[in-house]
Design the sequence.
């Protein structure tokens, strides 16, 4: 206790010196701070000797490798794993890639740039001019790509129709998506189409989609019998998803009756096999009912590219 | 155990508890494949090597392990239905029993035969697509309880193959006497959708899954019924006696937990897996192994997964799914329910690797392969059964 009291007693000389320093320092510090702030505001990019190019290269290389691994491994696992998790895995690829890129940018940015509010305004202004004049469409696609990750108008594994191109979304890149059509064509569609085009998504992330088999029949009295027969055709298909409804829709056309058998396969990858199965066995059912199919001399179905 | 069996009854469909695989075993299975590829050194030698099991001495394991007695399950059906049968004015005249597939003993038919009930035989399968309607079954029963033992035999997954089962269901809907219908779980899943069978038949009943302890006791009873009295059943890997119990008689060997999980709690599947893992020692090894006393010993190897053919996998899945739904099919019947003509070409490969059994003219799924088949179909997205 005695020692504590002794330490608390200030030295008179020390107090005097400190008071003098306090009177002199503020002016000096303010000047230096203002100069430094001015310098740092003007200096947009760090000095070259301060930039660790090795670190930048390492971050870029690591991110690039990580993205490459994700883009290869996740689809590989998705195709070989249980079909229940296939679409979840495929859908995770663009999200993981976006996260990795954001992390890399956030890592590299302070290494290269002198991050201040003033510099942010300068960079934003400069970037706006550049984007406005030179990279408008590209940046628009990039932004649409980022939005598509959150809004999800399409995901890898979905079957979509954009501008009469119907196919499975193979990849969702930063700028564009790749569709693989039923004819095995690869179609690249920039995300910017999302702004002003309708995007028709057949499955919207689910494992199945509605398939329609069309029959044009000249039948008068036995429409109900034929409808039951076609319903059984769908009910006994090996590809049928049991938890979804089976519908047979009739509509009268000038050339006869249009039967549409609407049902769902348990796996959307089987959609064309399912439609073929329905069509083959549906034709047999129609023949067994003793009616004939109408053969049009012109195209009556304008659905594009083998749309299911 | 005996007391439990006396009071055990069938349970409503949807409450079946699938046995859980031990976590350690699950991790081992996942890591096992990878480890097999990466490892350079051999694993520890088993207690008794496979070389000791000579083919000439590997006589039919059926002599060691009898055909599975289903007495427990027959008793369960009796216990469950006795009160309903004795009731002359029941709330419902129908009872539905849904069993897992691959029931080669035809459990419900055995129960009907034992009790001298009227058995409604299915029409010949080849005539199912002809569309000839069946004769009324209730008129033939002479007041006896009607049993429809295998509803899966009443239809063919063909556009004309549902008529008979629909006729049967409409007749059952109007029946005014006790009637028990049994169906395998895969066929029931289809019939609910295609024939709206759920609207006619009440909620199904099934047996409780055979968990490790019950399975151990049941298999022990089976071994006592053969010439294996006093015979020891030991694991080839470690030499442990599988039926040995600790003094408190509470602990069951982990082997049975694995067996219960692998067999999905289905006794006939467990029995076939058990039978498949049995190895008999060669004559020159009849002398006692070091570490165990001189005794008659039956060795059991580990429970391996059943491999499915790797080529033409889509056709393989279609065939297996069709066989599970129908129980058994001839080649022509199978071809008629498959979507593509060339799907049938995968059948020989399935027979060759043991997934499908060829008996006389019929093909059926092997009970031992059923867990693998179910898992493969589930992974491929097929609609599976629900117990």
Sequence:
């Amino acid at each position: 206790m005695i020692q504590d009291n002794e330490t608390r007693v200030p030295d008179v000389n020390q107090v005097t010196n400190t008071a003098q320093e306090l009177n002199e320092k503020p002016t000096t510090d303010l000047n230096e701070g203002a100069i430094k702030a001015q310098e740092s505001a003007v200096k947009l990019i760090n000095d070259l000797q301060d930039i660790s190019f090795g670190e930048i290269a390492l971050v870029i290389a690591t991110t690039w490798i990580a993205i490459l691994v994700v883009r290869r491994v996740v689809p590989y696992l998705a195709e070989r794993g249980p079909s229940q998790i296939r679409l979840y895995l495929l859908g995770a690829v663009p999200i993981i890639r976006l996260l990795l890129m954001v992390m890399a940018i956030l890592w590299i940015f302070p290494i290269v740039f002198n991050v201040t509010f003033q510099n942010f305004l300068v960079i934003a202004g400069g970037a706006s001019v550049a984007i406005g004049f030179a990279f408008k469409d590209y940046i628009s696609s990039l932004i649409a790509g980022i939005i598509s990750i959150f809004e999800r108008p399409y995901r890898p594994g979905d079957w979509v129709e954009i501008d009469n191109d119907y196919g499975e979304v193979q990849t969702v890149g930063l700028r564009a998506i790749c569709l693989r059509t039923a004819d095995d064509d690869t179609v690249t569609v920039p995300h910017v189409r999302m702004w002003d085009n309708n995007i028709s998504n057949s499955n919207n992330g689910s494992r199945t989609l509605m398939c329609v088999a069309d029959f044009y029949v000249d039948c008068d009295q036995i429409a109900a019998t034929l409808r039951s027969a076609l319903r059984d055709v769908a009910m006994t298909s090996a590809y049928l998803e049991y938890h979804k409804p089976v519908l047979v829709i009739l509509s009268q056309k000038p050339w006869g009756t249009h039967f549409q058998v609407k049902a769902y396969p348990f796996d959307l990858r089987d959609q064309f096999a399912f439609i073929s199965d329905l069509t083959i066995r549906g034709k047999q059912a129609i023949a067994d009912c003793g009616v004939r199919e109408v053969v049009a001399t012109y195209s009556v179905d304008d659905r594009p590219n083998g749309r299911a | 155990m005996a007391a439990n069996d006396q009071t055990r009854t069938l349970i409503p469909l949807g409450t079946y508890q699938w046995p859980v695989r031990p976590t350690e075993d699950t991790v081992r299975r996942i890591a096992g494949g990878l480890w097999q590829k990466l490892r350079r050194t051999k694993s520890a030698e088993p207690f008794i090597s496979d070389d000791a099991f000579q083919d000439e001495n590997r006589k039919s394991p059926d002599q060691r392990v009898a055909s599975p007695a289903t007495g427990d399950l027959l008793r369960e059906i009796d216990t469950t239905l006795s009160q309903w049968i004795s009731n002359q004015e029941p709330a419902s005249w129908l009872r539905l029993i849904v069993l897992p597939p691959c029931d080669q003993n035809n459990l419900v038919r055995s129960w009907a035969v034992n009790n001298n009930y009227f058995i409604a035989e299915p029409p010949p399968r080849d005539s199912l697509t002809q569309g000839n309607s069946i004769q009324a079954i209730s008129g033939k029963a002479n007041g006896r309880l009607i049993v429809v033992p295998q509803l899966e035999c009443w239809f063919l997954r063909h556009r004309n193959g549902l008529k008979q089962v629909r006729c049967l269901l409409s007749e059952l809907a109007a029946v005014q006497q006790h009637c028990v219908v049994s169906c395998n779980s895969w066929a029931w899943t289809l019939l609910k959708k295609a024939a709206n069978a759920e609207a006619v038949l009440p909620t199904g009943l099934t047996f409780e899954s055979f968990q490790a302890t019950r399975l151990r006791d049941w298999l022990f009873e089976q071994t006592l019924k053969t010439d294996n009295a006093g015979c020891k059943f030991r694991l080839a890997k470690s030499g442990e006696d599988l039926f040995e119990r600790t003094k408190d008689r509470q602990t069951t060997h982990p082997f049975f937990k694995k067996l219960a999980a692998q067999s999905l709690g289905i006794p006939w599947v467990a029995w076939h897996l058990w039978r498949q893992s049995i190895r008999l020692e060669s004559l020159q090894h009849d002398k006692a192994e070091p570490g165990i006393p001189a005794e008659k010993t039956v060795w059991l190897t580990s429970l391996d997964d059943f491999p499915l053919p790797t080529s033409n996998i889509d056709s393989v899945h279609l065939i297996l799914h069709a066989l599970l739904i129908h129980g058994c099919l001839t080649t022509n019947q199978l071809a008629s329910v498959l979507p593509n003509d060339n799907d049938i070409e995968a059948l020989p490969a399935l027979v060759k690797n043991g997934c499908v059994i060829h008996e006389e003219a019929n093909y059926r799924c092997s009970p031992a392969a059923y867990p693998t088949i179910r898992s493969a179909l589930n992974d491929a997205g097929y609609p599976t059964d629900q117990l």
Chain A touches chain B at residues 81-84, 207, 229, 232-233, 235-243, 266-267, 273, 276-277, 281, 284-285, 288 (CB under 8 Å). The CA atoms of residues 180 and 186 of chain A lie 5 Å apart. Strands of chain A lie at 159-162, 165-172, 176-181, 186-190, 199-201, 211-218, 247-253, 256-263, 292-293. The radius of gyration of chain A is 34 Å.
